[in-house]
Amino acid sequence: MWRSRNERDGTTVVCIACGTSLPRADAREYDKHGNRWERHGKSFEHLCKACYRDLCHQPRGELEALLLDVEDELRAERSADRQTVSEDDAEARRDAETGSASGARSDGSDSQAAFLSTYVRAVEARYGSVEESERDSE
Prior knowledge:
Helix content is about 50%, strand content about 10%. The protein is mostly helical and about 140 residues long. It folds into 2 domains: about 50 residues, no CATH class; about 80 residues, no CATH class. A two-stranded antiparallel ribbon has the order 1-2. The protein is flat and about 65 Å long.
């Protein structure tokens, strides 16, 4: 009996969640838009079976667009921070030349905390605060 075409090509893929390399036939497709059945013009990422089982399979609605907006905002903030760092470095050089001391500069918070803070702001801007929705439901 003939083997399936997937087994013949020997393609391997990498799980986007855990990084495991595995045969394509042993992987599950992941579509970030939540519709793996609409295949035209798409390329899919892959998950191993264990990571696929751990996924939440509930509809994602506008989640992907929200995450892209958060990433854009973080990118803009980092760009502005780099500009500020450049200005602070120039000021520090001037201070060193004149002998004056300026205060210590903080280079921002942990990237995870920055992401969560930006995410919460974006969710509240789109959907209102949790407190508002709790009051409305009472």
